[in-house]
Amino acid sequence: SAVISQKPSRDICQRGTSLTIQCQVDSQVTMMFWYRQQPGQSLTLIATANQGSEATYESGFVIDKFPISRPNLTFSTLTVSNMSPEDSSIYLCSVSPQAGNEQFFGPGTRLTVL
Amino acid sequence: DAKTTQPNSMESNEEEPVHLPCNHSTISGTDYIHWYRQLPSQGPEYVIHGLTSNVNNRMASLAIAEDRKSSTLILHRATLRDAAVYYCILRGRDDKIIFGKGTRLHILP
After folding, report:
1. Which residue of B has its CA nearest to A100?
2. Which among A5, A29, A48, A105 is the top mutation candidate for probing chain B, defined by the most B β-carbons within 10 Å of its own β-carbon?
3. Quick one: which of A89, A58, A8, A16 has its CA closest to B94?
4. B50 - beta bridge partners?
5. Which pLDDT does position B49 carry in this prediction?
6. Residue in chain A lying closest to B31 (CA)
């Protein structure tokens, strides 16, 4: 299993600013993912955070807007840059300790952009 | 990514079994069938997964059609705490989990 913590749990930010979200896992994991869940919607995969190399982004998401760091096998950050109200969402970190098996999700970071 | 089709919502009475269907007619031979659920105000949690054979665990059972083009998640005795959105997902070699809209399950007391 894997226990995931995220910081901050929530934040209210002004338009045009940036916020960095941290994800910490209690064990080393190969696969780490970032998701977004807009109000009333399902989860959308933003990117796969790769340790030691650039993240792999899904269609519609770009590095300039959502830079990701993955310095080691237990930690990752997602930055939401130059925020607008449309970025108001819950951002979730997820890990897959063993390929193909159970994936674990963090508690999420609730972001509100004014 | 192969697509899944689920009903938007379902209702069931408390303490009765629930059968949640999922169609995945374009499934490939290496895709695993995963089910996750999201309780209100929480992140998704794993329910069960399988490849070809039916699977059972403490939470649920997964019945997979012989041609693998459909599957059914079975909650044997629904409780109010099982009210959630249930997602049927095909997980391929890239190991990514792509969520669809899921089925919102309502449990009636």
Report:
1. B95
2. A105
3. A58
4. B33
5. 94
6. A100
